[in-house]
Design a protein that fits this description.
By secondary structure, this protein is of the alpha/beta class. It is 36% helix and 21% strand. The strands form two sheets. It has a nine-stranded parallel beta sheet with strand order 9-8-7-6-5-4-3-10-11. Helix 3 links the parallel strand 5 and strand 6. Helix 2 packs parallel to helix 3 and helix 5 packs parallel to helix 6. It is globular.
Length: 257
């Protein structure tokens, strides 16, 4: 007799990932320490569901001690807000290109402080993905494994393969962001999202079609199975992100609960 997989969800600081309205994540891409801390505090005041610190934008990103110190200062500010820690490589839309060893050290120092709740790992940039995922999870952090394609929406089979391999390597959440060149690309991304969500309810996912053409994908997560969406509150980290107030209203209108 076939055992039905249970729908996965987990709670971080009172926010539930994996059910109902997608959580809204707001990015911080400031360069200077004081501005990063101020921006995080501002987003907390705006009641962001999740805050993402883009470490690659930090002017001291190569200085591990500076990262540790900044995280210690941020810790009391995000005590009630889920905090995502992301080093985005230049090939994946980031602002800084480092060696894999340097990027690994940056990810690990974030996990070891146990201040970020979630750590982003780039699918194609990590030599031993399953090993690093396990290492971060053993430190009590959740892992989002991500892939971004800023040029195109890959073939449907390729998108399915990427999401499946992320899941098989043990990610807590799998994330895929692609660029549409026509409306049909957005539809394919949503179809892949719904299919993955139905086949693997034990795995949380985030998907989005970027740019203006893909904006619809950022507001339909509750329908198709994406558990989080990325918005903006004065600064955007990717093309097509919608302003927080507008995004909140649209998610509320489209809610099926």
């Amino acid at each position: 007799m076939k055992t039905e997989m249970k729908t996965k969800q987990f709670c971080i600081k009172g926010k539930t990932f994996g059910t109902g309205r997608p959580l809204i994540c707001l990015p911080v891409t400031k360069k200077v320490k004081s501005e990063i801390i101020e921006e995080i505090a501002r987003l907390v005041e705006l009641h962001a569901d999740v805050i993402e610190w883009r470490v690659d934008a930090y002017e001291e990103a190569r200085n591990l001690n500076a990262i540790r110190q900044l995280l210690r200062e941020v810790e009391p500010i995000v005590k009630d807000t889920p905090f995502l820690y992301t080093f985005r490589s230049k090939m994946q839309g980031g602002l800084l290109e480092l060696s894999e060893e340097e990027a690994y050290d940056i990810r690990l120092v974030g996990a070891e402080t146990k201040i970020p709740d979630l750590i982003d790992l780039e699918f194609f940039a990590v030599d031993n993905l399953a090993k690093e995922i396990k290492q971060i999870q053993e430190l009590g952090r959740k892992v989002i494994t991500s892939h971004h394609d800023f040029n195109q929406t890959p073939d449907t089979k390729v998108m399915e393969m990427i999401l499946s391999q992320m899941r098989e390597n043990g990610a807590d959440i799998v994330k895929l962001a692609v660029m549409p060149n026509q409306a049909a690309d957005v539809i394919r991304l949503l179809e892949v999202t719904e299919d993955f969500h139905k086949r693997f309810p034990d795995s949380l996912l985030i998907t989005m079609s970027m740019g203006d053409l893909g904006k619809v994908s950022r507001i339909t997560g509750e329908v198709f199975g994406s558990c989080m969406t990325f918005g903006s509150a004065g600064e955007a980290s990717a093309p097509g992100q919608i302003e927080l107030e507008q995004l909140s209203k649209m998610l509320e209108i489209l809610s099926v609960e």
